[in-house]
Amino acid sequence: MVEDADRWRRAGKIGAEARELGAGLLVPGASRREVAEEVERHIRARGALPAFPANLSTNQEAAHYTPDPEDDYRFRTGDLVKLDVGAHLGGAISDTAVTVEVGSGRHAGLLKAARTAQESAGALLKDGVETRELSLAIERAIRAQGYRPVENLSGHTIEPYLLHAGVSIPNVAGFSSQTLHAGQVVAIEPFATGGGGRIRNGPFGNILRFREPPDPERSPALAEAFERFRTLPFCLRWVPEEELRAALMKERRHLQTYPVFVEVREGLVAQWERTFLLTPEGAECLTP
Q1: What single-letter DSSP state applies at residue 273?
Q2: Active-site residue 189, yes or no?
Q3: In this model, does residue 235 exceed pLDDT 70?
Q4: 146: pLDDT strictly greater than 90
Q5: What is the mean pLDDT of residues 149-166?
Q6: Comparing C-alpha atoms, which of 118, 89, 132 is closest to residue 3?
Q7: Which member of 107, 164, 181, 254 is catalytic?
Q8: N or C: which end of the chain has fewer CB within 10 A?
Q9: Catalytic residue status for 107
Q10: Which of 17, 40, 84, 139 is catalytic?
Q11: Measured between alpha carbons, how far apart are the two ends of the chain, in Å?
């Protein structure tokens, strides 16, 4: 059960602001690294912290790409960009995403499939709802538009300092079912594709996370970094100290590293995500 609901609401409002700011920056010629940094700068300026590095996954990439410090890519007309943003206030996390087709509108149907799936599942959220009902609504909405849901990605519950908190909401029916209750925070995030409907692990997406606190005697530098990031994902753009960057990369095997999720048939992917607080009466969207 979530405590201090107003803090979660503030985190949601800030995350939604950052999402909309970033979406407006996705134009032909925009720097991928600068868009990520501007989104994260807004979150910090509003008194929160990024819950994870701004994801800017493009075309067949479904999720988990954030620019590294040397990233020089500039968006091109027709790029399909998934902007996934999170903000947290003392561990109260919001998680929200939008897909933007840069400078064109050739794939409006794919974007609509992801958006309507999120809206369909969000409308069913209430105390006592079973996740299989949400999964079925997501799958039906995407297939109704002529696309496939990405079956091995899912929505999730959120708890303080824990982005994926144990209950999953698959994008297709039949995988699992659990019951959601008032007081839980839930992220609904359908992924739609014209490809094979699954993702595989691609290359390292520049996102790291501590699995557990490091030994301060063996590595004081890593212990210092843990105090900064705790168990939430982070990236090297957030580490200006060259010595600490080097230590993190040297010890990368002791950290969780996030691969980019790539569609198995290289199909384009669209994502839509909102965070909700379940109430006895229904659900409140924290990231409208």
Answers
A1: B
A2: yes
A3: yes
A4: yes
A5: 94
A6: 89
A7: 164
A8: N
A9: no
A10: 84
A11: 22
212 is catalytic: no
User: Which stretch of 108-122, 225-239, 243-257, 274-288 has the lowest confidence by average pLDDT?
Assistant: 243-257
Q: What is the mean pLDDT of the chain?
A: 95
62-86 pLDDT per residue, tens: 999 999 999 999 999 999 999 999 9
User: How far is it, in rounded angstroms, from Cα 244 to Cα 264?
Assistant: 35
Catalytic residue among 40, 95, 139, 151: 95
Q: Is the pLDDT of residue 1 over 70?
A: no
**CB–CB of 122/145 below 8 Å?**
no
Judge whether 273 counts as a catalytic residue.
yes
- The two structure tokens encoding residue 279: 């109430």
In the set 101, 151, 189, 263, the catalytic residue is 189
**At residue 222, what is the residue type?**
L
Tell me 236's DSSP state. G
User: Edge to edge, what strands does the sheet with 199-210 contain?
Assistant: 61-63, 255-263, 199-210
127 labelled catalytic: no
Q: Which domains does the chain have, with CATH numbers?
A: 5-202+262-285 (3.90.230.10), 207-257 (no CATH)
The answer to whether 95 is a known catalytic residue is yes
In 3D, which of 163, 157, 138, 134 has the Cα closest to residue 148?
138
How many Å apart are CA 150 and CA 139, to the nearest integer?
A: 9
Q: How would you class 120 by CB atoms within 10 Å of its CB: exposed for 0-12, middle for 13-18, buried for 19 or more? A: buried
Identity of the amino acid at 128: G
Report the C-alpha gap between 122 and 69 in whole angstroms.
Answer: 36
**Phi, psi at 20, each rounded to 5°:** -65, -40
Q: Where are the beta strands (DSSP E) in 12-167?
A: 49-50, 55-58, 61-63, 80-89, 92-101, 148-149, 154-158
Q: Cα separations (Å) of 118 from 29, 190, 283? A: 30, 6, 13
